[in-house]
Design goal:
heterodimer, A: Rossmann fold, 2 domains, 14 strands, 30% strand, B: mainly alpha, Arc Repressor Mutant, subunit A, two-stranded antiparallel ribbon, 2 strands, globular
């Protein structure tokens, strides 16, 4: 087993007595691409900021590369890259100057990579940051986070202002980072279709907790929609275990079920009348997300 | 080479593994065919490289693919012999379920559907015969 890059145990954060996040535990392994989903205000940004050590935890711990992230030594910082939701670019500088400033902090800076991406992403290096569009600023922030080839890349809503072409270029870059299985990415996004493509692990932040976390494939297999049909009418009670929602509509009903397994399928079949037909429909990530927030 | 729909609800690894199995079993991808590298396939479809590597390992364990030192993965020589018709029919299961689901919604019976299936079968058969003879 490889050593996880990031480990949290019982992590929590309160501001002025108000709980923003509680009891969060996770591991990020080398090669993982973690997609963080959650409604606005669910606590995603706080979670990422705790990982980055921008703020100390109120409870529990989070470690990066074996060090408490709040007191990260320089050697560990050099292995970390991040793109905050609000960029930290210096307005009067040109893109090239800003790149130079950041590069000076890192002995391992890959200038060839940055120049190649700047060209591919159409970032004008001579342009002053002050005059850049939100999308251009976002691209530049991502470039700056990739330049030192971090082992762990943490991005908070990195693509919110990017057009579809730039978003695809960004996705390709993330794939490139993760392709050798030695580097990891944690990113939050409201663009569920991007998360669906890239993530092998999903974290769903809800009610200030890590409401669901695990393998994306397992998530897709474990939350399904059942379609029940009985030509002679459905029984009055529908004993469906783990049901999140049940909707009846005459001779048919639909139910969304969590923790679905083959055994549960038999269980449901046993509990229902013989002439009730059960069909299983897999759900997209967006549907799963919506169902979990009903 | 493959048709992957990340937003379909069916996990990507299953879509990919089923397609490779099917194409290997049918001979559409003959033994020895080289598969794209993990990185290339991931980039082409903008999907997680780990998903591709998971599929390749799974199919290697099943004997569908062969790993070659320093070279691309290939379709295994024995892939076809190893899967009798009954096994290959299993791979049709997801598509069949889709058809049955749609048929039920349309309130069609089993006989209607088998008849339609036979028609479609014959139609595509004619088409492929025509295409084959036309090409010569």
């Amino acid at each position: 087993m490889s050593v996880p890059y990031a480990v949290a145990r019982g992590l929590g954060k309160s501001f002025y007595g108000k709980t923003v996040l509680e009891d969060v535990s996770f591991d990020v392994e080398p090669g993982d691409i973690v997609g963080v989903l959650g409604k606005n205000g669910a606590g995603k940004t706080t979670l990422l900021e705790l990982m980055l050590g921008f703020t100390p935890p109120s409870a529990g711990s989070v470690e990066l590369f074996g060090h408490a992230s709040y007191r990260l030594p320089g050697s560990a910082k050099a292995r970390l890259g991040f793109v905050p939701q609000q960029d930290e670019l210096v307005n009067p500088l040109t893109a090239a100057d800003q790149i130079g400033v950041i590069a000076s902090f890192y002995p391992r800076w890959d200038d060839a990579l940055v120049m190649r991406l700047a060209r591919a992403w159409e970032v004008d290096l001579g342009e002053r940051i002050k005059g850049m569009s939100v999308g251009q600023r976002q691209k530049l922030s991502i470039l700056l986070a990739l330049g030192h080839r971090p082992d762990l890349l943490i991005l908070d809503e990195p693509v919110a202002s990017l057009d579809p072409v730039a978003r695809r270029q960004f996705l390709e870059q993330i794939i490139d980072v993760a392709a050798d299985g030695a580097r990891s990415v944690v990113f939050s996004s409201h663009i569920v279709s991007d998360v669906e493509r890239l993530a092998n692990k999903i974290w769903i932040v809800k009610d200030h907790r890590l409401y669901w976390q695990g393998d994306f494939d397992a998530l897709k297999d474990s939350i399904v929609r059942l379609h029940l049909r009985a030509p002679r009418g459905l029984p009055d009670s529908l004993p469906i275990p783990n049901a999140l929602t049940v909707q009846r509509n005459g001779v048919a009903a639909t139910a969304v079920v969590r923790d679905w397994t083959a055994e549960l399928h038999h269980d449901v079949a046993d509990r229902l009348d013989r002439d009730v037909e059960v069909e299983i429909e897999p759900l997209t990530l967006e549907e799963i997300f919506l169902e979990l927030h009903r | 080479m493959f048709i992957l729909k990340p937003h379909s609800g069916v996990p990507i690894y299953r879509q990919l593994s089923e397609q490779i199995r099917r194409m290997a079993a049918s001979g559409q991808l003959p033994a020895g065919t080289e598969l794209p590298s993990i990185r290339d396939l991931a980039l082409e479809h903008a999907i997680n490289p780990m998903t591709v590597s998971k599929v390749y390992s799974l199919l290697e364990a099943e004997g569908v693919l062969e790993r070659n030192r320093g070279k691309p993965m290939t379709i295994a020589r024995v892939a076809r012999a190893q899967s009798p018709a009954a096994k290959r029919v299993q791979q049709l299961e997801p598509q069949l379920e889709q058809v049955v689901l749609a048929a039920r919604q349309l309130e069609l019976g089993e006989t209607d559907v088998t008849k339609a299936l036979r028609n479609t079968w014959e139609k595509t058969d004619e088409r492929s015969v025509r295409r084959r003879t036309g090409a010569r």
